[in-house]
Amino acid sequence: NSCTVKSSMDIKVSFKVSSFYGATRKEYLYQLKKKHHLTECKKHSLRYSTIYQRNSYFDERIVWKWFPRQRDAFNYCSLTKEKYLCLFTYEKVDSKRKFLVTSHQQFWNRYSKMKSSEKHFYEVIAESKPCRLYFDIEFDKTKNPNLGNGIEVLETFIQLVCSCLHSRFKITLGRKNVVDLDSSTENKFSRHLIFHLGDNTLFINNIECGQFVKSICLCLSDYLNTGVSNSYFSNDKFERVTEAMPSIESLHKIMVNNDEGKTFLCDLSVYSKNRNFRLYLSSKFSKKIPLTIASENVFCFKNKLTKSERRVYKLQNKTFDKDYCQFCDTLVCPDIDGNIRMLTSVGDALPVTSSINPVYLVTCKERRCDGFKVSPYPDLDQFVLQQASINSLNGSIRRWIHYEERHMMIYDLDNNRWCANIGREHKSNHVYYVADLRSKVVYQKCHDPNCANFKSSEIQIPIEVLPFTDNDVIEQFEISTDEYLNMMFSEDFLPDTNVLEKINSDQHVQYENDTNVLEKRNLDKQVQYENDNDISINSKEFDALFEEDLPIDLLCSES
């Protein structure tokens, strides 16, 4: 590929042939493809790609990795063990989603440059990650004309939550500590509220956060119906909470009307495990109404640095971005350095702990396995689908979970939201079926918070469908060991006597035939040994000759 030219001065000059004749067709096409690839990258900021880069000692490693499934994204976060990594969800067509692993700073650098039509992102609130107190406020304006624009009932609700926080945890908050995000339309009132508890105070996870919210709603419901609250708040405490409210009528407005009757102003279903919560400036894929700062918001976002913070930024060669700080204040799960005071729904606040590593490590208290579509028990899958298809709705298994210690299978369904509690399909929430293998029954439950305590009538699972082994028979059917042994050795389980006699006779004939063959082989080996007078073997090899039944030529050695 190179050429050497010798001049009159005897100086050798070497150059590549391609530099003289030009690039070959293969090289030209490669360069053209590379140029086209770079052009496409500039057009589309979101791509299925992974980027790793570190510019300086203080910079975090740049990670931008997509996953088709949430479980794979969690596994990646747990393996990398990077403290700053978090998980986001991107909504696609038909409510399908893909999952992004990156940091808050790296996400904002790209998110802030996207078009509004491309922003359909959600924050994943991991079950093991501390979080702020958050609410999803919504109601239908057409079904609640008495609430007007909804501002008055919203202020009453915020005041009620602040009073309960002070009564339960001695935390004093006001409207200025609440980030208010708005995505309301003409027919629907929709707000997201993020409470900043102050002093690095967070709930230990969103499940405990949800328990606290549900306790407020239950106390309010009992108080409005009977005048007495439940045991979470003592009667005098909750009375002191309600004394701060404008009036009892204002508390009644927190119970709003929907298609199913009365419900709470806040959505109680947003406190589930690994919940997706819409991000600031994002909209749902089917709608074009983004979450923006509400006009009634009085939360003071950070717009300048303190002296100590300026020194840190200068040392790390960073610039202050107030828009990024505003974005971080709207997140449910923040990045907090230093000590964290964690709250639980029961008992007092936990003592101040050291800085935790918010890596997505899901702790398993019991053995379980899960998967998609088909489980290890296809017969049980078909039986559950038959029960789910009774109402002319052909559902399919989206996901299954098997709890080994509890002998229980959970089936999440697709294409079927029919709930036996309301006698129709739910509009947004799904249903699931529980197969209790210990009790040998199947029943339907629901993800809707209004049907949280509902359980359909039990359906007996046929014995031929149950997945069990011999080791599980005693436990599955709740019989004693003696009964199990008597059952196994009863006449129903033992084979026919004539069959046993025939088997024994065949085995005896086979044994006699094998003995005759062995004697004949040993006799042949002895004759072969006597004939081979020139071959000598030691005593051990001689014994092995007849005991191991090996070819004689492998045991002999030349003299």
Automatic annotation (TrEMBL):
<dbReference type="GO" id="GO:0031297">
    <property type="term" value="P:replication fork processing"/>
</dbReference>
<keyword id="KW-0548">Nucleotidyltransferase</keyword>
<comment type="similarity">
    <text>Belongs to the eukaryotic-type primase small subunit family.</text>
</comment>
<dbReference type="GO" id="GO:0003682">
    <property type="term" value="F:chromatin binding"/>
</dbReference>
<dbReference type="GO" id="GO:0005634">
    <property type="term" value="C:nucleus"/>
</dbReference>
<dbReference type="GO" id="GO:0006264">
    <property type="term" value="P:mitochondrial DNA replication"/>
</dbReference>
<keyword id="KW-0808">Transferase</keyword>
<dbReference type="GO" id="GO:0042276">
    <property type="term" value="P:error-prone translesion synthesis"/>
</dbReference>
<dbReference type="GO" id="GO:0009411">
    <property type="term" value="P:response to UV"/>
</dbReference>
<dbReference type="InterPro" id="IPR044917">
    <property type="entry name" value="PRIMPOL"/>
</dbReference>
<protein>
    <recommendedName>
        <fullName>DNA-directed primase/polymerase protein</fullName>
        <ecNumber>2.7.7.102</ecNumber>
        <ecNumber>2.7.7.7</ecNumber>
    </recommendedName>
</protein>
<dbReference type="GO" id="GO:0003887">
    <property type="term" value="F:DNA-directed DNA polymerase activity"/>
</dbReference>
<dbReference type="Pfam" id="PF03121">
    <property type="entry name" value="Herpes_UL52"/>
</dbReference>
<keyword id="KW-0239">DNA-directed DNA polymerase</keyword>
<dbReference type="GO" id="GO:0005759">
    <property type="term" value="C:mitochondrial matrix"/>
</dbReference>
